[in-house]
Amino acid sequence: MPSPLSDASQQVRIALGERSYDILIGPGLLAATAPWQGLPRSAAALIVTNVTVAPLYAARLRAALAPHYRQVHEVVLPDGEEHKDWSTLNQVFDTLLSRGCDRKTVVFALGGGVVGDMAGFAAACYMRGVPYVQVPTTLLAQVDSSVGGKTAINHPHGKNMIGAFYQPARVVCDLDTLATLPPRELSAGLAEVIKYGPIADMAFLDWIEANIDALMRREPLALAHAVRRSCEIKADVVGKDEREANLRAILNFGHTFGHAIEAGLGYGEWLHGEAVGCGMVMALQLSRRLGLVDAAFAQRVSALIARAGLPVVGPALGAERYLELMRIDKKAEGGEIRFVVLEKPGQAAVRGAPEEMVRQVLADCTR
Amino acid sequence: MPSPLSDASQQVRIALGERSYDILIGPGLLAATAPWQGLPRSAAALIVTNVTVAPLYAARLRAALAPHYRQVHEVVLPDGEEHKDWSTLNQVFDTLLSRGCDRKTVVFALGGGVVGDMAGFAAACYMRGVPYVQVPTTLLAQVDSSVGGKTAINHPHGKNMIGAFYQPARVVCDLDTLATLPPRELSAGLAEVIKYGPIADMAFLDWIEANIDALMRREPLALAHAVRRSCEIKADVVGKDEREANLRAILNFGHTFGHAIEAGLGYGEWLHGEAVGCGMVMALQLSRRLGLVDAAFAQRVSALIARAGLPVVGPALGAERYLELMRIDKKAEGGEIRFVVLEKPGQAAVRGAPEEMVRQVLADCTR
Predict the structure, then answer these.
(1) Contacts of residue A244 in chain B, CB cutoff 8 Å?
(2) What number is the ipTM of this complex?
(3) The whole model's pTM is what?
(4) Domain-by-domain residue ranges, chain B?
């Protein structure tokens, strides 16, 4: 199939055999024709979105889909991580069933990471699986959560505990949607962009440092490069380890600490990307204490995180609460907490750490 | 790996590439050593069972697993199709999380079809997937629901609407557990055994007819053959079409009508197998009206269903209600109900039928 995009746009392939798909990246894709061609055919489509995104972009997506689906249904969820739970997910099932949607129905996730995770999980489970398309409208979703097929809802005891690996049929990143992003959401997305540098690509880290002001100003070319390179790195990792047997866990750099912050404060208090930004500062300090990177490198990346408008000091939940929350992290094994640490700048690995050392990191990085 | 079973027992392989697994069939397997060797290793196992089965067999399974897992946890669910819902499923998640179970934890489904469907779906979703083992204790689960990786919960609007295709690591059918089965449950299981004849194997249909009294008396050799041959046929179909793109749907012979009966009466009123038995009578009549099989054949199979102690007349829900319920069947496409019908004795296919003809069948087969 020829590229459905103009030269101005980009395309990244996720190579997963029969589950392979493309990420389309460019301006104006919601209003373009090509991104909506060649998708799975069905009588019906369902747009899953939220109260914030619906007024901005739902009509545009509906118009784009109208030529391809006889019926385009819509379900509008509440906005926020605190709603990423079963009762909200059930709104999607209720809509699908009340509209008589069959197992060919195509689900479109229009929104940020929460919408994408829930719409994807609903698609994974509805009649044991219907196709879905990610249409991420936040930077965080475009560079990370919409790519790679991780879907989930939260459980009161832990983040993303109930979910599925379920790949979308396509990801459509319309860069124009980033213009309406609140500043906090932009910063949260930059946390995941920055992440790819220290774990996988030092040249990208250099580039982000040189362009962080342009990214904060939302310069289109800078955002386009950040999204494309982030997706390329993620595509490479996911292509090698779809179900996180091993390598894929490095994408969770900063997330062990970050998930504890999110759950400890109550979902929705900090944005996911904010918690990850702060969690990376902690993971950098842990890597330093383990003797894997020097203090200068930890400081360098932490400074970049701060320049992205992200918190670099964690909430004072108390070490016991942090440890308790981290013990139910999905990477934990047999009760031992496992962390993504840097083996050296540009390379990450998963390993345990002495509890005393983790306590020192928490003491250093929380207030 | 050599067969873990003695010569007295049987083994059927489900060939699905890297998701392949064995069905072990024989007497005394719960108390034997071999069936519990070579499973995925973990610090912890969770037995999912129900209030009826737990007092009978949980201690035996726990003893069998003790040498292999440091901790063997247990969650005991209420019994019955009416509990196959999200709130009961959540009991499994709560147990997994409160016990600190990590993503290597192995789930064991000890019970009938409801327990197997829920434990399997919980395993599919917990931390995006942990291994599980089916230990079916009803005839229906041994010959059908434990094999092939279909997992699900019900939604008020339709049966098995929320679920996943997720294959177990092994299926262990201890034939001794059939001794404690209530008569209604035995008959319900025979419905799924009988099913395999008209859709796939006329020689098996002959054998069932010749041995129906022995099966009703629970003669061990007859039950062993019925379980093995049923599993072989199911393994063959599932191996060719794991995710029901096409062929696999024939295993749902009698289920379109049957699911409508279950949902229409309220889950748990009729057993699933009872509804399927009656649904097959309806599907036979539909096949006859479509000119695919003759009246004598429809009568022959219906008589066998009756001899198995199953209902052959459906509840008088009214044709409108039947049609409404069948329109949300998973096989429906674009609002058209699709039925599994016999193309000829021993061969099935999926197709639509004129609504007037379906109404005639309902008029003939309900009271």
Answers:
(1) 128
(2) 0.94
(3) 0.95
(4) 10-180, 186-365
